Amino acid sequence: MPCYFAIIGAKDNPIYEAEFTNPHLNQFPPELKELNPFILHASLDILEDLQWQTHPQSGAHSGTNSGFLRSRHSSSNSNCYLGKIDHFYGLAITGYLSYGNMKFVMVHSGNANNGSPVVVDDVSVKSFYQEVHELYVKTLMNPFYTLNEPITSPVFDGRVRALAKKLLTK
Amino acid sequence: MSASTNSVPNSSTGSKKSLKAFSDDIWKNKTAKINAELFTLTYGSIVSQLCTDYERDFVKVNNQLFLMGYNIGMRLIEDFLARTALPRCESLAKTSEVVSKCAFKIFLNVTPQVGNWSSSQDAFSLFLDENPLSDFVELPMDAAKELWYSNILCGVLKGALEMVQMDCDVFFTSDVLKGDQTTELRVKLNRVLKDEIPAGED
Amino acid sequence: MKQKIINPSTSVNTATHPGSTGYDYTMGPQQTLPDLPVSSGTIAASGTNGGSSTAASAHTSLPSVYNGSLHPHAHNQHVSLAAFAFLFQELISQARNASKSVSEIEMRLHRNGYHIGIRLLELLNFRSSVSPGFGSTSSSRAFFSKTSINSSSNTLALNNALTTTQDEPSLAQGISHMKRRDLKPVEILQFIHSTVWTYLFGRVSDDLVKSSERDNEYMLVDSAPMLSQFISSTNVQCDFFVCGIIEGILDSASFPCNVTIHSVPEPNFQQRAVFVVRFEQQVLEREALRA
């Protein structure tokens, strides 16, 4: 499935964005491609709400009407990976927070355009986020990197895409 | 700043064990230590702050780092001599060995390789396989050409050697941060400042 | 439709160095192009091989932070306290020379600390998530140090590590559960009191107390602050550096606050320092909402 991934900074500014596509899979149709950033930004409110909840993944009393849509997964004690946080016409949106509250967000699209909801594989999506989190920490450790600035390194980009290929668009 | 420790006669501290074992012992048993990453991060914050202060004029940053190192070197040599009680070095070859195996070891816990001697034996290089200053560092593109990230080390050596009457030029010739294969620090002895030994010390 | 605009320089670049341009926020997200080799990083890293010979494209020949490891044993764990003391003294005298007032000196030291604090929050929490013992065997230590330090000598191995990420021992592979993000002021202060203090100074701080007078105020006590022990005869509070570290951690964890240092000597601890953390009102309001 094609995915649109972004890291969003403290001022809702994009720090990094990428589309993960694969020759054997559908790509985002042009009209959707343009919408992705908006879909994603619409989910940020939900993410910010979940950010301060003690059990963000228990879902049922999340206080938002999207709670029941979120996926269940085993490690309910974690509050970095938030699982599926939102949906939009058959697209699923997942979220992850770093310790410095960088927002990692992704729009997952299904293969077919039949509007059926995308099934998110929490195990691989979570490992994808954790691996990217590590790359982010390495970025931050560089004294020349300024918090909340875009990550322009081609190596970072290459690594993230390699992870996506391994874990998401297989 | 007293030069008394510099002029300990050679005979009094005849080194029975190797310099390496001697330094390892000082490092292991007689040195208060601190998290190397705090050191790395602190240096990183200094360099990045300087780059901002000098509006990314990296030549100025190099000079400032060198100056900071120079100030450190002048004070550090006293601490070094007090802790090691090493005698005056009779040759530059001996100096190079003390710097790499002893000074670098007991301050930074690394041992650079000495090499690349000039034909007249008045200049050598220190090859830093490990450099605690530059862990986690990637130079931004605009800095890659001019900035010598670890230039403070040159200043430290310059200052310290000057205090033991050795007038040297100390500078980097390559740095892995710039994409070079090695990090090479060059030390070139200009002259020995004999006149400046305080009278009556010998 | 920006994908229809063909930028000549970009297209040339794509042909010779596919995908090596990195993220550009003015361009927006780029696709992973079908015929690309996955690791654009290979190109950047293989440049390290050439060194000066491939100096033509300087930016592709720089080594990368991503080839290093975050493992705490990836490099030497200690330097001498003396080396740090010399550096710190020089940091202070430089701040003095560049400042016109005492408060400006303190502000500069604070800024240096803040720079470190925002990094420690991510680094230390991320490391705490890794299962104990992961990657700490002697063989992997050797591997880590090789990749992180001597990146130029075995470019082949490096390229492999880049193309097939499973060869690269990322710390994330040793994580079964991420450590929870701290949500309450007390939790994050305990993290500073224990994890951060131990990391920085080799021991936990001496006390963490909540103010009895003000709701938003907490105090971290250090009876013998390490940094001020080698700074003598000065009215500049060197521990503003530590205030900066604390504030950097709390601020980036979304606990905006103000941290000040107060010297409160006791008979046996002349240097005893109390760091006072005052959270902004919004932190308390957030707390109240969740309760």
From TrEMBL, chain A:
<dbReference type="Pfam" id="PF04628">
    <property type="entry name" value="Sedlin_N"/>
</dbReference>
<dbReference type="InterPro" id="IPR006722">
    <property type="entry name" value="Sedlin"/>
</dbReference>
<dbReference type="GO" id="GO:1990071">
    <property type="term" value="C:TRAPPII protein complex"/>
</dbReference>
<dbReference type="GO" id="GO:0006888">
    <property type="term" value="P:endoplasmic reticulum to Golgi vesicle-mediated transport"/>
</dbReference>
<dbReference type="GO" id="GO:0065003">
    <property type="term" value="P:protein-containing complex assembly"/>
</dbReference>
<dbReference type="GO" id="GO:1990072">
    <property type="term" value="C:TRAPPIII protein complex"/>
</dbReference>
<dbReference type="InterPro" id="IPR011012">
    <property type="entry name" value="Longin-like_dom_sf"/>
</dbReference>
<protein>
    <submittedName>
        <fullName>LALA0S01e14708g1_1</fullName>
    </submittedName>
</protein>
<dbReference type="GO" id="GO:1990070">
    <property type="term" value="C:TRAPPI protein complex"/>
</dbReference>
Automatic annotation (TrEMBL), chain B:
<dbReference type="GO" id="GO:1990071">
    <property type="term" value="C:TRAPPII protein complex"/>
</dbReference>
<dbReference type="GO" id="GO:0005783">
    <property type="term" value="C:endoplasmic reticulum"/>
</dbReference>
<dbReference type="GO" id="GO:1990070">
    <property type="term" value="C:TRAPPI protein complex"/>
</dbReference>
<dbReference type="GO" id="GO:0006891">
    <property type="term" value="P:intra-Golgi vesicle-mediated transport"/>
</dbReference>
<dbReference type="InterPro" id="IPR016721">
    <property type="entry name" value="Bet3"/>
</dbReference>
<dbReference type="Pfam" id="PF04051">
    <property type="entry name" value="TRAPP"/>
</dbReference>
<protein>
    <recommendedName>
        <fullName>Trafficking protein particle complex subunit BET3</fullName>
    </recommendedName>
</protein>
<dbReference type="InterPro" id="IPR007194">
    <property type="entry name" value="TRAPP_component"/>
</dbReference>
<keyword id="KW-0931">ER-Golgi transport</keyword>
<keyword id="KW-0256">Endoplasmic reticulum</keyword>
<dbReference type="GO" id="GO:0033106">
    <property type="term" value="C:cis-Golgi network membrane"/>
</dbReference>
<comment type="similarity">
    <text>Belongs to the TRAPP small subunits family. BET3 subfamily.</text>
</comment>
<dbReference type="InterPro" id="IPR024096">
    <property type="entry name" value="NO_sig/Golgi_transp_ligand-bd"/>
</dbReference>
<dbReference type="GO" id="GO:0006995">
    <property type="term" value="P:cellular response to nitrogen starvation"/>
</dbReference>
<dbReference type="GO" id="GO:0005085">
    <property type="term" value="F:guanyl-nucleotide exchange factor activity"/>
</dbReference>
UniProtKB/TrEMBL annotation, chain C:
<dbReference type="GO" id="GO:0006888">
    <property type="term" value="P:endoplasmic reticulum to Golgi vesicle-mediated transport"/>
</dbReference>
<comment type="similarity">
    <text>Belongs to the TRAPP small subunits family. BET3 subfamily.</text>
</comment>
<dbReference type="GO" id="GO:0005085">
    <property type="term" value="F:guanyl-nucleotide exchange factor activity"/>
</dbReference>
<keyword id="KW-0813">Transport</keyword>
<feature type="region of interest" description="Disordered">
    <location>
        <begin position="1"/>
        <end position="57"/>
    </location>
</feature>
<feature type="compositionally biased region" description="Low complexity">
    <location>
        <begin position="39"/>
        <end position="57"/>
    </location>
</feature>
<dbReference type="GO" id="GO:1990071">
    <property type="term" value="C:TRAPPII protein complex"/>
</dbReference>
<dbReference type="GO" id="GO:1990072">
    <property type="term" value="C:TRAPPIII protein complex"/>
</dbReference>
<dbReference type="GO" id="GO:1990070">
    <property type="term" value="C:TRAPPI protein complex"/>
</dbReference>
<dbReference type="InterPro" id="IPR016696">
    <property type="entry name" value="TRAPP-I_su5"/>
</dbReference>
<dbReference type="InterPro" id="IPR024096">
    <property type="entry name" value="NO_sig/Golgi_transp_ligand-bd"/>
</dbReference>
<feature type="compositionally biased region" description="Polar residues">
    <location>
        <begin position="1"/>
        <end position="19"/>
    </location>
</feature>
<keyword id="KW-0256">Endoplasmic reticulum</keyword>
<protein>
    <submittedName>
        <fullName>LALA0S09e01112g1_1</fullName>
    </submittedName>
</protein>
<keyword id="KW-0333">Golgi apparatus</keyword>
